[in-house]
Automatic annotation (TrEMBL):
Protein name, entry field: LLM class flavin-dependent oxidoreductase
InterPro entries: Luciferase-like_dom, Luciferase-like_sf, SsuD_RutA_monooxygenase
Lineage of the species this protein comes from: Bacteria, Bacillati, Actinomycetota, Actinomycetes, Pseudonocardiales
Biased segments, Pro residues type: 143-152
Domain Luciferase-like: 15-174
SUPFAM superfamilies: Bacterial luciferase-like
Pfam families, sorted: Bac_luciferase
Region (Disordered): 137-156
Amino acid sequence: MEIGIGLPSTIPGTDGPTIIEWAGESDERGFQSLGIADRVVWDSYDPIAVLGAVAAATGNARLTTTVLVTPHRGNGALLAKQLASIDQLSLGRLTVGLAVGAVNSDFEATGRDFEQRGGNQDQLIEELREVWRGVPRPGGVIGPPPAQPEGPPLLIGGYGRPAIRRVAQYGGGW
């Protein structure tokens, strides 16, 4: 059995050093994965930034987004670079959980269209995969490549038929 633990990044008032210490101790105590949630309108840390720091503070546990709300992140090429960088820094320990999001206030705060989030996620996932395969963009190839040959595993979160379709089409799991 594998057991993971969530990082305290969404607990209001938690300072950065506490999150890094929590990650290091959890890794040392044998937890197999460290998870981080994604919210914009909340007193919480950005999961991309935290996982970059946690990659340096740990050496064994998988680093997992639980889940990364991709439609309000907007730019698939930039997100692909950020995630590939974390995958490299962690020596291939990244797992990316993705979802369309269900909290309208996060979309309002980022200026993204809540009603179009499903289509936006499909497009973004396709961009992630293209960048990770080294497909040239108009300005050139985006690097670094992920440490894991096909890119980090994608887990698709959500409810209903669209989420199930995304799992079948893009994801390594639900």
